[in-house]
Automatic annotation (TrEMBL):
Residues 1-111, 556-585 are annotated as: Disordered. This is RNA helicase. Belongs to the DEAD box helicase family. DDX3/DED1 subfamily. Residues 569-578 have a biased composition (Basic and acidic residues). Keywords: ATP-binding, Helicase, Hydrolase, Nucleotide-binding, RNA-binding. Gene3D superfamilies: P-loop containing nucleotide triphosphate hydrolases (3.40.50.300). InterPro entries: DEAD/DEAH_box_helicase_dom, Ded1/Dbp1_DEADc, Helicase_ATP-bd, Helicase_C-like, P-loop_NTPase, RNA_helicase_DEAD_Q_motif. It comes from Cinnamomum micranthum f. kanehirae. It catalyses: ATP + H2O = ADP + phosphate + H(+). A motif (Q motif) lies at residues 158-186. Residues 189-373 form the Helicase ATP-binding domain. Residues 158-186 form the DEAD-box RNA helicase Q domain.
Length: 613
DNA sequence: AAAAAAT
């Protein structure tokens, strides 16, 4: 390899021979070709149908991100470095008084329980973004805007110690190096522990998964151990966590396994595109918490493999996505037409970063006397993300992207390529752009719904590890995925929904780090101009004059208006319903007195009022 | 119109 200042992008032109990384511009090349002779990368492109090969077993090369000093100071360094393991394999699983120690639960399984913290130490096996909280600037929490509404909202806590989560869970919190609860955790955990239903708006990366997992795990530990038959045909999970993509379900599973380690609470994941029989065997070994995508869950239910009769906790991650047009019938079937206990009997929590009013109305069907909670983000929302919008005709997008990718290296990522996530509108467009990037010497890969699950997971791994530092993605990657070190999100095609834009750019600037988001705007996006300009204003971004003109020209209707006003999630639709309709939602609503607007002021000016008709 | 989610 040449000097560290010679990044892969240097070789994208014709002048230099391709350095190692450049020749690994696609999945197949991910490991084996990293030391291949320099040659034009054009020839290294492998068409999609030939890419479905198992990842190479080549050891982590010098390209592995562990060598990366990390521009963000000591906190970012700890992400890549091997975390010091200050706990032993058999770490205490103390069971305090009043705690059901669940002996006799899944004992046999526990003997074999893999230590998820050790797995994560292996960079080859590490899948999820670890130590989500470790790099967060907790000082910024003091200014976080919080909005709650509903009856008798339990007060927030300031420390994990204030909550009786149980010794085993506390130990895992320590292992995760979570020092203090994040804002969403401070508010949502007491609400959940009080048994209340919850609709929560909080940006991903702010500790959302833990916020809904801790109370579930704790509740199961405290609860009665029902005698369940290992190996029985039908299994009866106590908790169900649904998410809209397979990769997100995987990520939630990985994370919740850490939280549940040695608690005796078993977490199993089930999603499509992977062999169902393996998942069924895992279920037969016992399951307390089932993490699933909707389709596979329905399949397992129809095979009488899973019953929801014992469900005490239901969590929907990315809940607004789960309840939008495409998903809603499936979710309704699972929640209302299978054998799950009704709302009010089970406990239901919904989480997302965005919550359009009309979706809130739908969601209230699944909730009983719920609390609405909106928590802003560390570093006041998306201020951490520098948003740029550039006017680019469709025909110029590729060359413009190339310019950005070249410029990226000048941004100086300490000799390591920063990760760039490029969103496009269609699966075909994703394949085609990836092909073009690879053909031009850019090490790219792609993830979308037309690829096999193996290919999808491999693409994600290649991206995370830096083997393919450019990922071309459809909206399958827009939500929830925690990919550390995404420096740049490019909206090559601008999404049609402003909420999708919010989720997409949220893949960068995570955990207190800064990020850059660039969108390619042209006439075909004019319907989004107004909401885009408003969003940028709300997050203190400079709005180009030409975009402001588009915004002024366009009407502000349809689904493109901001769902919440303000800079985060949204606000309780029941407040508006009670004003304009003088009535409550379907199942009781809080009066305005529970409403606490915190530091959240002036978020929506007079112009926003019309969005709340 | 598109993406996602079961086989």
């Amino acid at each position: 390899m040449m000097s560290t200042s010679t990044s892969w992008a240097d070789s994208a032109g014709a002048d230099n021979p391709a350095p190692a990384a450049a020749s690994s511009g696609n999945d197949r090349a991910s490991g084996s070709s990293s030391s291949s002779a320099p040659r034009p990368t054009r020839s290294s492109y492998v068409p999609p149908h030939l890419r479905n090969r198992p990842p190479s077993s080549a050891p982590a090369s010098a390209d592995a991100p562990s060598a990366r000093p990390g521009p963000g100071g000591p906190t970012s360094g700890s992400r890549w470095g091997r975390p010091s393991r200050d706990f032993g394999r058999g770490g205490g699983r103390g069971s305090g008084g009043g705690w059901n120690n669940r002996i006799g639960g899944w004992d046999r399984g526990r003997d074999r329980e893999v230590n998820p913290f050790e797995i994560e130490d292996d960079p080859e096996l590490a899948v999820s973004g670890e130590q989500e909280n470790a790099g967060i600037n907790f000082d910024a929490y003091e200014d976080i805007p919080v909005e709650t509404s509903g009856e008798n909202v339990p007060p927030p806590v300031n420390t994990f110690a204030e909550i009786d989560l149980g010794a085993a869970l506390n130990e895992n919190i320590r292992r995760c190096k979570y020092v203090k609860p994040t804002p969403i955790q401070r508010h949502a955990i007491p609400i959940s522990l009080a048994g209340r239903d919850l609709m929560a708006c909080a940006q991903t990366g702010s500790g959302k998964t833990a916020a809904f997992c801790f109370p579930i795990i704790s509740g199961i530990m405290k609860g009665q151990v029902s005698q369940r038959q290992r190996g029985a045909r039908t299994v009866y999970p106590l908790a169900l966590i649904l998410s809209p993509t397979r990769e997100l379900s995987c990520q939630i599973h990985e994370e919740s396994r850490k939280f549940a380690y040695q608690t005796g609470v078993r977490v199993v994941v089930a999603y499509g595109g992977a062999p169902i029989h393996h998942q069924m065997r895992e279920l037969e070994r016992g399951v307390d918490i089932l993490v699933a995508t909707p389709g596979r869950l329905v399949d397992l239910f129809e095979r009488a493999k899973v019953s929801l009769q014992m469900i005490k906790y239901l969590a929907l991650d990315e809940a607004d996505r789960m309840l939008d047009m495409g998903f809603e019938p499936q979710i309704r079937k699972i929640v209302e037409q299978m054998d799950m206990p009704p709302r009010g009997v089970r406990q239901t929590v919904l989480f997302s970063a965005t919550f359009p009013k009309e979706i809130q109305r739908l969601a209230s069907d699944f909730l009983a006397n719920y609390i609405f909670l909106a928590v802003g983000r560390v570093g006041s929302s998306t201020d951490l993300i520098v948003q740029r919008v550039e006017f680019v005709h469709d025909s110029d997008k590729r060359s413009h992207l190339m310019d950005l990718l070249h410029a990226q290296k000048a941004n100086g990522a300490n000799g390591k390529q920063a990760l760039t996530l490029v969103f496009v509108e269609t699966k075909k467009g994703a394949d085609s752009l990836e092909y073009w990037l690879c053909s031009n010497g850019f090490p790219a890969t792609t993830i979308h719904g037309d690829r096999s699950q193996q290919e999808r997971e491999h693409a994600l791994r290649s991206f995370k590890s830096g083997i393919a530092p450019i990922l071309v993605a459809t909206d399958v990657a827009a939500r929830g995925l925690d990919i550390p070190h995404v420096a740049h999100v490019v909206n090559f095609d601008i999404p049609n929904d402003i909420d999708d834009y919010v989720h997409r750019i949220g893949r960068t600037g995570r955990a207190g780090k800064t990020g850059l988001a660039t969108a390619f705007f042209n006439e075909s996006n004019s319907s989004l101009a107004r909401s885009l300009a408003d969003l940028m204003k709300e997050s203190n971004q400079e709005v180009p004059a030409w975009l402001a003109r588009y915004a002024a020209r366009s009407s502000y209707g349809g689904k493109n208006r901001r769902s919440g006003g303000g800079r985060f999630g949204g606000r309780d639709f029941r407040r508006d319903a009670s004003i304009s309709r003088g009535g409550s939602g379907a199942n009781g609503y809080g009066d305005s007195r529970g409403y606490n607007i915190g530091a959240y002021g002036g978020g929506h000016g007079p112009a926003m009022t019309s969005a709340w008709d």
